[in-house]
Amino acid sequence: MTTFRVLGPLAAHRDGTAVPLAPSLRRLLAVFLSRPNRPIPGPALVEELWAGRTPANAHKVMQVYVHRLRRTLVDESLIGHGASGYVLRVAEGDLDSLRFGAMVERAEVAFRRGELAKAAELLAGGLALWSGDPFADARDTPAVEDESRRLIEARVRAHEIHGDVLLALGRHVEAVTDLVALTRSLPMRERLRGQAMLALHRCGRRAEALELFRECRATLAEQLGIEPGAELQILHRAILRGDPVFGGRVAAPPRNVWQHGADRRGGGQVARWEAAAPPAKRGFLRRAG
Q: DNA-binding region spans which residues (predicted)?
């Protein structure tokens, strides 16, 4: 069985043993793995491999590379060829990026159903597949660069969903260190910052939660000339007041909390917070906003 890794340095293994790859074959394999199970026309493959510096016999050389890669991977059926072009056929379980995407999708379904423990387990397992930047040593073609950017965004989104799930489970002590670290590496992601603020507040670290908001406000003002979004400002005011809604466990998972691209006026977020709050406390967030 041949397996592949791209969530870090590119690697191929045959029955558990690393497959050595010459630079030209590594480049070709990276292009195939950036589009798994999707045909790549011959001219597109040539353009990816030579990026405008195409030799006169490029198509023939590309065919030779494909032949060599098939032999290197041992299982020549992995790379097919038809009217639509060349395709690397790989099962979900044999490519870590496909496995990661499937685990995140299943986690989102579990979260929406209220199966929080299952969602947390799936997300933790998916994030554990990463060992560095995607295609870390093979990002020198346009297709690979595009797929790398997509995977990086998918990883950040998985962290955001994981934060939602852990907070909904009341596991803020477990989540707080990673969430704070993520705000350092991703200072513009308000969803992660809000999760970190909430986790710190629930851990009794109110001053640190407020400092995270001050840092966010300063960064946004300096780099973009804007204020934090309405959702983050509402959370900030609630923490300042020490609102009890934010100090304990959420009874049910608020759907799409801190949704990427959410309405910056904060109405949808406030409604979700209210839905998770005890009946006696509902409505105070809108008055505070």
A: 1-90
The DSSP letter of residue 85 is E
| Domains of the chain in sequence order | 2-91 (1.10.10.10), 170-289 (1.25.40.10)
Rg (CA), the chain: 23
CA dist 262 and 277 (Å) reads 20
Residue 253 exposed, middle or buried by CB count within 10 Å (0-12, 13-18, 19+):
buried
Q: How far apart are CA 230 and CA 155, in angstroms?
A: 25
Residue 279 and residue 276: Cα distance in Å, rounded?
9
Angle subtended by helix axes 23-34 and 142-168, to nearest 10: 50
